[in-house]
Amino acid sequence: MMSLRSLGKGLMAGALALAMGGTVMAQTPAKPQYGGTLEIATIFATLSALSWDPNDWNWKLNHDTSQFYEQLIAGDLDKSVRKGGKYAFTIDSHLPPGAQRGELAEKWEMVQNPLSVVFTLRKGVMFPEKPGVMPEREMTAEDVVFSFNRLRASAKAIPTYFDFVDRVEAKDKYTVVYYFKEYNAEWDYRLAWGFYTPVTPKEVIDAGAGNWKNVNGTGPFVLADFVQGNSNTYTKNPIYWDKETIGGQAYKIPFVDKLVYRTIKDEATQHAALRSGKIDILEAIQARSVDEIKKSSPNLQWSKRLSFLGQYVALRTDTKPFDDVRVRRAMNLAINKKEVIAAHYQGHAELHAFPMHPDWTGYFDPLEKLPPAAQEMYAYDPAKAKKLLAEAGYPKGFTVKMQYCACSPDHTELAPLLVAYLEQIGVKIELQPMEYAAFLSAMTTKKHAAAYLMNNSHNNPTTSIRKNFVTGQTWNASMYADPKVDARMDEVFRAPDEEKRMEMLRDLTAEIVGQAPYIWLPTPYTFAAWWPWVKNYGGELSVGSIRPGPIYARIWIDQELKKKMGY
């Protein structure tokens, strides 16, 4: 076996020498292959599924259910960078209009009188048979209406999320109309391709949507098995409606017979599984591990992306001492963020890339364009930090608890560095590592500590500000509350002119950064690696809101190449 593997490495060396900038584009054969199993350690390889029921309003739902639950709109992978387009599909939940395609909807139209959006559904999209749950049947407008109304009525729904919608109606079997009370700039995200918009059949709800054995949707795969802490296993949906065009010819998808998510909590074990070929794709690799993996497994193909997870320490503005902006600004000035980038991230991070993502042209202002009060939050000035603490009444500093998730290898190493910096200005941090379920629950129930180290998705330009800084929002971990910010965000959502929204959001971002509700931490670059036998793939992650299912449905395995390489 080892000699075959070595031979395979030699055979592939020439082709893989085409790599540029650490990235190798997949060499796709003219004709795809069917069959085999695709094994993936995803971007959330350390976390099992948190819920199967959309009614739980869980952020990770689409990651685990987009293989079988579909939505009205999805990202158009034919417009990906890999296929000559301009969209990388590596941001978790940002789909500009040019990146969208119909999934369950064939077309859609905004109507002004009455203010509404009309979706025309595809005909012939089928739910497969699920023994004991439902027979095979066609998906209709009634399923869309049922799903929306159930989500809207959930006790776990995000406050105000659907308030702009008056009602939704099925005009006929294939036409759904959402009537609006007022315009909302996020209407497509919230209704058609977001975190909380999958279409679920009533039969699944009646059977118990929280039980993985009951779930069933129109997507390319069927959930066949789930082992908590180990794996999700999906098998091909034989009656799936969509196709992939390769070389001008349309092919039924999915190509693979089976898709397996591997839950691997230990980082070293993830790397070993990749090197040995036990997994085909590892979607999240930290910069410090890349050179070692490349050296031991030179045939791997790579992509590099700026993380779609902003990271920070949320400082509870409703709790002393962080109700004082001078204290919050001091916490930022105490951290040498450039040194964190150089030492901890080996240079692979951006100093300022949150809450707006640099890829959001028009919404993002680089650091040098921010006002001085905001720019200063990325400077290192422990002397000024001590002065601010003294002015705020803490000349000797204070002690505070900081929670972080033990599920994050990065934060497990980063947290002690932050502690060391803050000690230099007299702030003593008591670290509290937590398992993910308890960590998330503490924040969503507002019982988290005064300092809370976390990752949080950028999402999209409007959501990033809304969920982080609007009063009372679920993900507002700093408990930031400013009526003027709330009112300005209301204006943003009501503005149909995108240029106007861009200007308003740039101004809001600059102001909030200066108010320092967070310790603004660098945003790291993250790497993905996969074996050359993985075809029709270039590191794409999401075609909606953490929706990878349609991406995996279009991948095929070159079985001959895999065998030739000794795996």
Helix coverage percent: 25-40%
Strand content: 15-25%
The residue ranges in which pLDDT falls below 50 over 5 or more consecutive positions are 1-29
Q: How many beta-strand segments?
A: 25
SS element count, helices: 18
The best one-word shape is: globular
What would you note in describing this structure?
By secondary structure, the chain is α+β, with helices and mostly antiparallel strands. Strands 1, 10, 11, 14, 15, 16, 18 and 23 form an 8-stranded mixed sheet that branches. Strands 20-19-21-17-22 form a 5-stranded mixed sheet. Residues 1-29 have low confidence and may be disordered.
Strand and helix layout:
Layout: H1 2-16, E1 37-41, H2 61-65, E2 73-75, E3 100-102, E4 105-112, E5 115-121, E6 126-127, E7 137-138, H3 141-152, E8 165-172, E9 175-180, H4 187-193, H5 202-207, E10 221-227, E11 231-236, E12 243-246, E13 249-252, E14 258-262, H6 267-275, E15 281-286, H7 287-296, E16 301-306, E17 309-315, H8 325-333, H9 337-344, E18 349-350, H10 372-375, H11 382-391, E19 398-405, H12 409-423, E20 427-434, H13 436-444, E21 451-457, H14 461-469, H15 483-494, H16 498-515, E22 518-520, E23 523-530, E24 534-535, H17 549-552, E25 556-557, H18 559-564
Parallel strand pairs: 1-14, 1-15, 19-20, 19-21
Antiparallel strand pairs: 2-3, 4-5, 5-9, 6-7, 8-9, 10-11, 11-14, 12-13, 15-23, 16-23, 17-21, 17-22, 18-23, 24-25
Give a brief outline of the structure.
Helix content is 30%, strand content 23%.
Structural key phrases:
23% strand, 567 residues, alpha+beta, five-stranded mixed sheet, disordered N terminus
